[in-house]
Design brief:
This protein has 271 residues and is α/β, with parallel strands linked by helices. It folds into 2 domains: 11-108 and 193-269, Rossmann fold (3-Layer(aba) Sandwich), CATH 3.40.50.1000; 112-189, Alpha-Beta Plaits. It contains 9 helices and 13 strands. The strands form 2 sheets. The protein has a 9-stranded mixed β-sheet, sandwiched between helices. A 4-stranded antiparallel β-sheet has the order 7-8-10-9, covered by helices on one side. Helix 2 (54-64) runs parallel beside helix 9 (252-264), helix 5 (116-129) packs antiparallel against helix 6 and helix 7 packs parallel to helix 8. It is globular. The relative contact order is 0.22. InterPro entries: HAD-like_sf, HAD-SF_hydro_IIB, HAD_sf, OTSB-like, Trehalose_PPase. It catalyses: alpha,alpha-trehalose 6-phosphate + H2O = alpha,alpha-trehalose + phosphate. Its EC number is 3.1.3.12. Belongs to the trehalose phosphatase family.
Length: 271
């Protein structure tokens, strides 16, 4: 697996149906990996209010109960958080794959574990430093931290970015890095690990003739798209900006349509 290095605008999903059918037809099983926010659940102003749409929850449950299909949620949320928000998947990856729950066990990346105390200090300092910015929220996810500025007045966003970078440099030095997302700044250990690595680990336990599908909506999902493409299928949710995903849908409602098709018709294409 491995997508081309140069991203291009993904095609609408309906233009990819022949390839999707062919990919599943050549497989003996399917691994469906799903982001949560913006994919199964609509983006909301307060992350605590995020819930999967009813149709997405139903579709995930159906796939989870379907022979030959393995379901996984791969999220930037903390593992405990995302497990409480969506039922059905047999595998959960939290904190962009730094923690992985499967087969009754939870594994945590050793480097992330070592930096957990630093993340704790960082989030505490950021909460004080950003306290005067209206509607700015700092989320401590134990292994990573997130600064949310979706509800921050646009004039104050540059201040949020500047303060966050200054604090990360001061508290974390070279040990931490900042990654951009949709109106968020993600802060975590400076190591070459992301959602794509988690998907690769999950896929390694599946049969060799497995069709791997990944659906996500954000910059942090690009590493997963690169992992599954071109042998599998990456589906970008939202805009048609360049991506290593080959297909695109508009919204979580379209994700539900695809997952429902997969659970009712797509699985019948398996060898």
């Amino acid at each position: 697996m491995g997508a081309p290095d140069t991203p291009s605008p993904p095609q609408p999903l309906e233009e990819q149906w022949p390839r999707i059918r062919a990919t599943i037809d050549d497989a003996t099983s399917i691994l469906v990996c799903l982001d949560f926010d913006g994919t199964l659940a609509p983006i909301v102003e307060d992350p605590d209010d995020a819930t999967p749409t009813e149709r997405n929850q139903e579709a995930v449950m159906t796939l989870a109960d379907t022979p030959g299909v393995t379901t996984a949620v791969v999220s930037g949320r903390a593992l405990l958080d995302v497990r409480e928000r969506i039922n059905g998947p047999s595998i959960y990856a939290g904190n962009h794959g730094l923690e992985l729950a499967r087969d009754g066990d939870i594994s945590i990346h050793s480097v992330a574990r070592e930096h957990a105390a630093c993340i704790e200090r960082l989030c505490a300092v950021l909460e004080v430093a950003l306290a005067s910015v209206p509607n700015c929220r700092v989320e401590n996810k134990r292994l990573t931290g997130t600064v949310h500025f979706r509800a921050v007045p646009s004039a104050a966003v540059p201040t949020v970015r500047r303060i966050t970078h200054d604090v990360v440099d001061s508290v974390g030095g070279d040990a931490l890095e900042i990654s951009p997302g949709k109106q968020i700044l993600e802060i975590g250990p400076d190591l070459a690990w992301g959602k794509g690595d988690a998907v690769e680990v999950i896929a390694a336990d599946e049969p060799s003739e497995t069709a791997v599908i990944y659906v996500g909506d954000d910059v942090t999902d690009e590493s997963a798209f690169r992992t599954v493409e071109p042998d599998g299928l990456g589906i970008r949710v939202g805009s048609d900006e360049p991506s290593t995903a080959s297909a695109r849908v508009e919204s979580p409602a379209d994700v539900a349509d695809f997952l429902s098709w997969l659970g009712s018709t797509g699985v019948d294409l398996l060898e």
